[in-house]
Structures are given as C-alpha cells and as structure tokens.
Specification:
Helix content is 63%, strand content 2%. It is mainly α. The protein has one domain. The longest helix is centred in the C-terminal third of the chain and has 38 residues. The protein is globular.
Amino acid sequence: MEGLNAIRISLWAAAACLGAVVGARLVLGPYSVAGIAVNAPLNPEGVFGMLVVALLAWRCRPVPEAESYSPWMLRTVALLAMVALFPALRVYFVSDDFILVRQAQTFSASVFTSAGGDGFFRPLGYVSLTINAWIARFDPLWWHASALCLHAVNAVLVALLARRLRANLGVALLAGCLFALHGTHLEAAVWIAGRFDLLAAMFTLGTLLFYGRNTAVALVLALAALWSKEAAYVLPLLVAIVARWERRSWASVAPYAGLTAAAFVYRWMLLGGIGGYRESSGEAAFYSLKFSTTAKAVFVRLWTSLVFPINWSIDPSVVVGILGIVYIGALLWLAWRGGTPQVRWMLLGLGLSILPPLHLLGGAADLSGGRLLYLPSIWFCLLLAFASAGLPKRETLAVSAALLVFHFAAVQHDLAFWQRTSDTVRAICASPNPVVNPPIMIDGVPALANGLSDCIAISQRLQ
C-alpha cells in the first residue's frame, strides 16, 4: 500500500511540475529552460492532462446521492452555451460552408440511396442543412444561430445523461456547462460543415437517454445518429456502458448492435468499401494507422486538446493566462482529492468514442480538427464533473468555478480567430479582383480550401 501511495505522489508531483511549465508559458510567453524552448507547450499540456486523468481514475470516493430533477439546471446550461458562443453569430461563412449552403438550397432524396462524392454517407446531415436553408437561405446569421441552438441542446443532453448516471444536480450542471464552453467545439458549432458532428452527438445522446425506457424511440434515434456521421458507429459500445452501469442484461444491447451492423453493411455497399478520406495513393485513410503516431495522439495530444483547448496561433491575454494558472491549480487539487467510480466508466466511454476518428487525431497547436473530438468530449466533461463529486461541497464549488471561468475565457480567445478568418474570407470573396491562390487555413480556421467560386457567387447575392 505504501508503495502504491508513493507512486501516486510521484505522479502528482510530475503533473505539478508540468503544470508549472504550462502556467509559466501562459503568463510569460515563449521562454527556454536549460536550453529547451517552450513555445506552444503541446507535450507538457498533454502529459499533464494524461497524468491528471490517471490520478482521477486511481482514487474513487463514494458516489453522493442524487437529488430530484430540477428544470433550472437545463435552462442554465442552455443559456451559458448561448452566451459563450454568441459572438459566433457575427462570423461569415468559411471554406466548405459555401458549397454546403449552395447545395442545401435544393434537396434530392438520392442522399439516402447513393454514395456521397466526398466518400461519406451522411443523409440526415444533408436533410438538416436543407431544412436550415428554407429558413436561412444565404444569411450566415441564421445558419450560425441554428448551429448554436443545436450545440445548446447537446449541452443540455449531456447534463441529462449525467443525471441518468446518478449525478447530483451540481455534477450534472458542471458537466453540461463544461460541454457548452469547451474550446474544441468551435469547429462543430461555428463551422457549417460541423453540422454532421452536432447531429451525430445529439442523436447519440438521445439514444443513451431513451435506452431501456422506450426501445422504439431509442432505435430511431440510433439510426439517425448513424446516418449523421461515422462517429456514431461506436453507439452499441456506449449503450453497453449504460447497460453495465445500470446492471441491465447484455441482451438489451443486441438491437443496437444489430442496427449498427445493418447500417454499416448498407453504407459499405453504397460506398464500395469503408469510405472516408483517402490518401494520395488512393487508399482509404482509415487504414493509415501507425503505432507511433497513434500512441502519441492517444496518450499525449488527445489530452492537449481536451484539457487545454487553446489556439496558440496568437498568445492568450494576461487574463487568460492568470485564469489558466488557477485552472491548473484546480485540476491538481481535483487530482489529489477528487474521484468517483464513474470516472473510470467515463474514461472508457472517451476511449471508445475516439475509435472512429482515431486515424485523423493529431492535436494541433491551432486546434484544427477539433470537431473530431465533439463526441469524445462528452465523456471528458462527464469525467471532470464526476471527479468533482468526490470533493467536499465547498471545494467542489471552488473547483467548478475555476474550471468554468477558464474555459469561458479560453473559448472567447479561440472565437476571435474565427471572426478574423471569416472577415478575411468575406473580403476576398467581395473583391473585384479574382484571387488565384486563396489561403487554405488561417490560424487553424478553415478559410478557402474549397468553395471559392461559390463564395464569390454568394457574396454577389448578398450585396
């Protein structure tokens, strides 16, 4: 026992040292220690996050009893999501948005019976975009407003899922609020092309909430999730987590496994294979997994993005830096004092959720590719929230406040990049002089990798 305790203390001390490295970078800017430059501290962030999560899973206190349901919790989560991402309503279209908005003006039922030209089969996503187009037409304000509403709904569903897993009101509120604020969600909630991620998460959460309560509704929602994005193909495994936690029979998971298998076979037949992005050689990118890069993505860079969702293209402000130091202290306190049995289950859910996009995970300094973490981040937010339940009430309140204030400040820092990039794209598309080589990305935000001609046409329509 003493040996295990010594290991735990050593891991915590290592996390504290790495936290000091990241904290110093936040407030001091780039610096060097013993000749080692600390610029965008991705590896220290990632290892720090991994150690904190490992310590949270190590020590588990009893689960507090859950109070009765309260609707104010849901309203608070939804309102926070709206307030935090409100600046996104001023963002213009970028990159693939122009193509999707133009295509959404007309609808064809062939999306259910034919392969997508991009190597994906996501019919429900295209139906959603078409419905959006009936209201928004070519107005970016209404497109972003609808995406923001979907994100707010997902944050509420995360809180409800926490309640189903026997969280008390404070824990459920923290889980929903963390999800509402997390910086990796901007690609899904601000980029129109992220609609598929919003829907896949919403229908997946709906399935988990209706599982065991209304099988017919749950299966309809499951199919909707599978037809929104490939990330949902882990759904039977996520249902199994809820089943195991509630001590339900494995047979209750079988319908979801069967439905997922049938949907996968149908998709395979339409796409003539697994589909998805392709390498320059023509081989599906899904088969490009390599042990070294995958291990680094899973054990380091995944935690970089989840624990510190900061776009390092421009240094954060002093305020964000100071809040970051408080945040690091709160995580260290949580790692030393917190933890409940649900933490391990949430970690399992996170691990399962990264399987579909595993070949695409990277953890860039500019948060590009953040939409890939939209579904996995549900379990990360639940993990932190349940870990806080192992603290006394006053400590829980202090830690929760530190987590939420930092994430609110960080997402405002990240949103500024989307505004600047969209302003640049708007100017390019409205320019009377054609641009030969438009920027593909600007500070991690998609600019004009695709859709230049549609961008110009939509700009002329809006003038």
